[in-house]
Specification:
The chain is mainly beta. About 10% of the residues lie in helices and about 45% in strands.
Amino acid sequence: MRCLTRRVGLCLAMALCVIMVFPRSASSQELISNRSPYTLYDVAPRYLIDMPTAGTLPRGMYNIGVRLYQGGGGLMYTDIGLSNQFQIGISFGGQDVISNRTLDPNPRIGFNVKFQLIGERPAFPAIAVGYSDQGMGGYSDAFERYRFKSRGFYAVASVSRLIYDWTCGFHGGINYSLENEVDGEEVPNFFVGFDAIVYNHMAILFEYDFALNDDKSQFPEIAGRGRGYFNASIKWLFNESLEIELIARDLLVNRREAETFAREMRIVYTESF
């Protein structure tokens, strides 16, 4: 199973590389110019479910997000666009946020920063580099890591194409997490993703994290099974500022303690100063 999922991931990565070399369809620009006043086109996605994209918030824009996940967990975060290519953000959360048990907060405030090196061009993807120390799920003091490791340092490329009147984004990147002191998995990791705006106010998102740095079998309490993480979501733009997203995490059931995939929810409010 592990070999099969890795092969699927490699095929997705190869497909991404092939798509990136094709020139952009001119009709995608025509579609954007004729869109309704408030749509998911207006601000490029900065992330899919967990993985970052090469998109950044425009200068003077900010978002405030709340994410609810298994175990009564919750995470609140905010990002600010300091320029059209540079954004920073902070986050904080913990387990048992929605619960009748004592709150178990994360050990520190999360920090992220992203800089877009190259904007997207007709025959070349956008490229960004960044850093994030905010993982997902509960934090283990014993293993000094989140259940789903933080991204750490990363580089990511994104490109958009028009396919059957859907504006689609293809994304791929590499990262190196710093949460490796205990498990010793000091290896780079790869991730790929896809998003599509199926209507002006609806989008579907998929991503696959190879999790090469999270498959040590000698740590069954915290490590994955070696299948990688496959996540999907549906996003709805409720109005010009508010997004509501339903997330299905770990569809391959890579977590050893999981019986099935996890169900999560995210709400994001985006506005400008």
